[in-house]
Design goal:
mainly beta; 13% helix; Protein Yojf, Chain: A; single chain; 54% strand
Amino acid sequence: MEDEVIPRSEWSEFADAFSRQHEKWLTTIRMNEGNKTEVLAENAPLKYLTTRGESQVHIGVMTRDEPKNPVDHVVQHTSRIAFKETEAGAHKGLRIESEEGPTYDLEFRSASPPEEVNGKI
């Protein structure tokens, strides 16, 4: 299934809804730049996705090192946000692209419809 590109005018509303629907889902965040991939977080519970200004996206995840304070990953100069689903409609995650080059992939540990995951931690 093709990624669903979120129009820039809907980023803030989408981020709020995404955060509520996927809070605590186990998430891996990868930053891809050229031929290099860096894992920023692995199987970390999602705390929030938010936007600031017109081109900044923040992804907050909980870690063992900071169990009470989310670690904030910032995507500067965001140019595109795309929602990823399986053919069956299960939620896989997001792809966030930056004008500066890096692409960030936020992937859930298992692609699932939200109704099968929420309430089960």
